[in-house]
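Q: Hi! New to this. If I give you a protein sequence and the SMILES for S-adenosylmethionine, can you show me the bound structure?
A: Yes, paste them in.
Q: Okay, here:
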Amino acid sequence: MPGEEGNPVATPDAVLTPAARDALAYLEARDREGRTNNVPRSERLRAVDPTTARLMAWFIQSQGVRSVLEVGTSGGYSTIWLASAVRLRQGQVTTLEWDPVKVELARSMLARAGLAGFVTVLHGDARLLIPTLPGPFDAAFIDAEKEDYPTYLDLIFPRLAPGGLLLADNVLSHADELRPYLDAVRRHPGLQTVTLPVGRGLEVSCKLPA
Ligand SMILES: C[S@@+](CC[C@H](N)C(=O)[O-])C[C@H]1O[C@@H](n2cnc3c(N)ncnc32)[C@H](O)[C@@H]1O
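A: Thanks. Here is the predicted structure of the protein with S-adenosylmethionine bound:
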């Protein structure tokens, strides 16, 4: 638990090194540019809202999470936050992305942030990659195509450690599209879930002990 001897505690922004801040600032600027200029959707970074990222880093850091699975890397914005949060405990983030251009950008951003050693970026379709990952993961973050969220729930739940956190973005901004996911997590007998009105809406679900 946080505060125990030998268990480092830091406030969310304190987990960021100057190199991580620099990489995040670059990605925030690129994300803004993509949203304001007519950049095709497939080329936009669609990074998570900074406050949501900060809150996730706080959860990860304060809960002593060491292993994180991320679905949807894009340029690595959320990955940098997650990796910064697990870094103090020598944890690992496994992040999945099928767009080769984004995989390359994320890898270069993680190197620039000094976090490459804390992240495995896997290139491929997350729906095919997750079944190859044994887990268990202490936390997972879903931030990919909305229609696939229920599939990710089915694939991730058995790979989540008891007490593990399942985080899903866009649940308020895309509430209709994510209705099947929201119904599934809220009815799931093995999960307790709450919607946080931060950024585009973050669904935070906790896996109950067996
Ligand atoms: C909303 S963006 C992720 C943003 C990222 N989490 C961040 O904060 O910077 C969604 C990403 O998921 C990727 N993606 C969508 N479906 C995927 C799939 N089936 N397998 C792997 N990546 C996928 C997209 O290419 C896109 O880069």
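A: Residues 45-48, 72, 74-75, 77-78, 96-99, 102, 125-127, 143-145, 148 surround S-adenosylmethionine (CB under 6 Å). Let me know if you'd like me to explain how to read the tokens.
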